[in-house]
Amino acid sequence: MKKKIITCAGVSLVIILVLLSVNFLQSETGSISKENIEKENEFKKSLDVVAQKEEPDEVSKEFANKLGVDEKNIVSTGNTIKSTYYSFTVLSWTKGKEYPGYALPEAVLDEQGNITNDFSYVVVNLSVKNQSSKTIENDLIWGYIRLRFLSAPSKYSDYIGEVTYLGEEKPRILNHNYYAETFAPEEEKVMPMIFVVNDALLDSEAMYLEINATGAVIDNPDYDIRRYIVLN
User: Fold this and answer.
1) What are residue 104's phi and psi, to 5 degrees?
2) Which residue from 63, 116, 138, 171 lies 20 to 30 Å from 29 (Cα-Cα)?
3) Cα–Cα distance between 103 and 15 in angstroms, integer?
4) For residue range 178-212, what is the model confidence (pLDDT) as tens digits?
5) Under 8 Å CB-to-CB from 66, ≥6 apart: which residues?
6) Which DSSP string do the residues of 82-96 spell out, in sequence order?
7) Residue 151: which region, alpha, beta or left (left: phi > 0; alpha: psi -120 to 50)?
8) H-type helices in the chain, by residue range?
9) Could you tell me the end-to-end alpha-carbon distance of the chain, in angstroms, rounded to an integer?
10) In 3D, which of 202, 205, 195 has the Cα closest to residue 59?
11) In this structure, is the dihedral angle defined by the CA atoms of residues 83, 88, 93 and 98, taken in order, positive or negative?
């Protein structure tokens, strides 16, 4: 009889523990789901940020017409454009074969680091600011920026335009997190972005940055929000 009572008590205790565990997991799952929904809604809201409130300059208007995009999504060097949580400003840029003074990309170089073949450095000093009041952690923002060429030679139409190297005093490890960056609320960072391009591309009508701060891919067009900065 005692054994039956003990067995029943044990079974009851197990059932109670199982029910408590289920309730706890449901509560935790609910909290995580709610948090994810809030983050998703916040992100969707950021997609509607106005690219620029000022009237685009004449260069941007002409460039927009050639690209076939909204002129509000294009600015010239020195002007600021916004996308999602960020603002972007090209402070300056250079092109040439002389060593820019940062970690060297792979190319044919002389002893001073100058390129001696048919490629050149394009160095763009880009200011990126977190416009929000929240920390942005490990965002692959530097990987969402491309160097593009207007009316490039057809031979180079498949040029991807990814950043070759980031110009930092202490080079980061080249791995899957190479382009990741963390921004404190309202923090601004200036990054020299080094591209190594074929000289033939430098004969294009113009160069510009294409920025898609969402990192959207082709199968996610709702998040494909592009901004452009003319290197002029």
Assistant:
1) -75, 135
2) 138
3) 62
4) 999 999 999 999 999 999 899 999 989 999 999 99
5) 150
6) EETTEEEEEEEEEEE
7) left
8) 2-46, 58-67
9) 92
10) 205
11) negative
